[in-house]
TrEMBL record:
One function term, GO molecular function aspect: acyltransferase activity, transferring groups other than amino-acyl groups
Keywords in alphabetical order: Acyltransferase, Transferase
Signal peptide: none
The organism's place on the tree of life at top rank: Bacteria
Taxonomic path: Bacteria, Bacillati, Actinomycetota, Actinomycetes, Pseudonocardiales
PANTHER family noted in UniProt: N-ACETYLTRANSFERASE, UPF0039 PROTEIN C11D3.02C
UniProt xrefs under PROSITE patterns: GNAT
Protein name: N-acetyltransferase family protein
Stretches assigned to the N-acetyltransferase domain: 3-169
């Protein structure tokens, strides 16, 4: 299957929320224990900025209206200005599109464009038990920068969180550039 991407629109938010909610029962990719609502994600979406903190949706070639995953570059550590050179990456896939190459595609596209958005580093956290995600990120050059033992509780199961990061090649914000689109 061939995937493409585009900038997310407000009309994509229900599909984005559905994809995010699909991982909650699995207890493998988020510490949210209850489904989120579209209304609860409105502010998150409104704060995204295609020129700085974009959200991109994946779709099958020729079907841009069917959202099959999403990736976002978000403010790092509560958006404190000193961290503006680092993006917190989030990547979620529709269950029917996991293991099909879409995750690798979306991750490679985000990494390829992050420097032009002004980032020097991309970082994220992944549950230590989520070997599939850890392999994906490692295959794109991310390295383990730390491990936080038992910081999450998923229905009584203590979970370690692995902090991974990727330094990017030297582009700066001043060099401009737009998003993936």
């Amino acid at each position: 299957m061939t995937y493409q991407h585009r900038l997310a629109t407000r009309e994509d938010l229900p599909a984005i929320v559905d994809i995010y909610n699909s991982v909650i029962p699995e207890r493998s990719a988020t510490c949210d224990l209850e489904p989120v609502t579209v209304a609860s994600r409105e502010a998150w979406f409104a704060e995204s900025d295609p020129q700085r903190h974009p959200i991109w949706v994946g779709h099958e070639s020729g079907r841009p209206e069917v959202v099959t995953g999403y990736v976002s570059l978000e403010p790092f550590l509560n958006g404190r200005r000193g961290y503006d050179v680092t993006a917190d990456l989030a990547l979620y896939l529709h269950p029917e599109h996991r293991g099909s190459g879409q995750g690798a595609y979306l991750l490679s596209q985000a990494v390829a464009r992050a420097s032009a958005l002004g980032f020097r580093t991309i970082a994220t956290t992944i549950f230590a038990s989520n070997e599939r995600s850890l392999r994906l990120f490692r295959s794109h050059g991310f390295r383990e920068w730390g491990r936080l033992p038992a910081v999450a509780d998923l229905d009584g199961r203590a979970e370690d969180v692995v902090f991974v990061g990727l330094p990017l090649g030297g582009s700066s914000r001043e060099q401009g550039g737009s998003g993936l689109g």
